[in-house]
Design goal:
6 strands; 6 helices; alpha+beta; 4-stranded antiparallel beta sheet; 2 domains; flat
Length: 187
């Protein structure tokens, strides 16, 4: 084989390996069950957005969502139904955010939504809108509707914050919101 043919073969192999590496990186960033970012990739994207917001003096926010009574769904309908509920919720979220935003699964029944260039008021409105959309779209499981409600918390990023602090603050806001809802059952 000539030297040029060997170089050409090596170039093709290198391009194939780069493409395969890109595919593997994408797979490694996705949740194992849902078409959303896994926690590791979400935290990386959150760090990137926080840095971008600080550097360019723009606002960004996060919504933390927790499915209410998810254990009861699994216990009543089975784990396959619980998985279907998670897919259903992730699909609703995906369909109702901008392409500049990001969704991640933070835990079993917890999701995070990063809202790039959104202030606290915009994030509050978007969070309420997402919660309402999820509540209005029950999942049909074996002919039975499964009603889904979600608690959420919103946090607008502050200067000097890191991703862990942002998630903790959004999580705290979600728990405060959930406690208020329990005190006011007509809501």
């Amino acid at each position: 084989m000539s030297l040029m043919a060997e170089v050409d073969a090596l170039r093709k192999e290198l391009n194939h390996n780069r493409q395969r590496l890109t595919e593997l990186e994408e797979i490694a960033d996705l949740d194992v069950m849902l078409p959303v970012l896994n926690r590791r990739a979400f935290m990386r994207e959150l760090t990137r957005i926080i840095s971008f917001a600080e550097r360019y003096q723009v606002q960004a926010s996060m919504i933390y969502l927790d499915l209410d009574n998810f254990k009861e769904i699994n216990d009543s309908f089975g784990h396959a139904a619980g998985d279907a509920v998670l897919r259903h919720v992730s699909q609703i979220l995906e369909q109702n955010i901008r392409t500049s935003d990001a969704i991640g699964r933070l835990g079993g029944d917890e999701f995070g939504v990063i809202l790039a260039q959104a202030n606290a008021e915009q994030a509050i409105q978007k969070g309420a809108s997402l919660v309402e959309m999820i509540a209005k779209r029950a999942l049909k499981w074996e002919g039975q509707p499964i009603g889904i409600t979600v608690s959420h918390g919103v946090y607008a990023f502050e200067q000097g914050m890191n991703a862990d602090d942002a998630v903790a603050n959004a999580d705290r806001a979600m728990y405060e919101n959930k406690a208020r809802r329990k005190q006011s059952p007509d809501r």
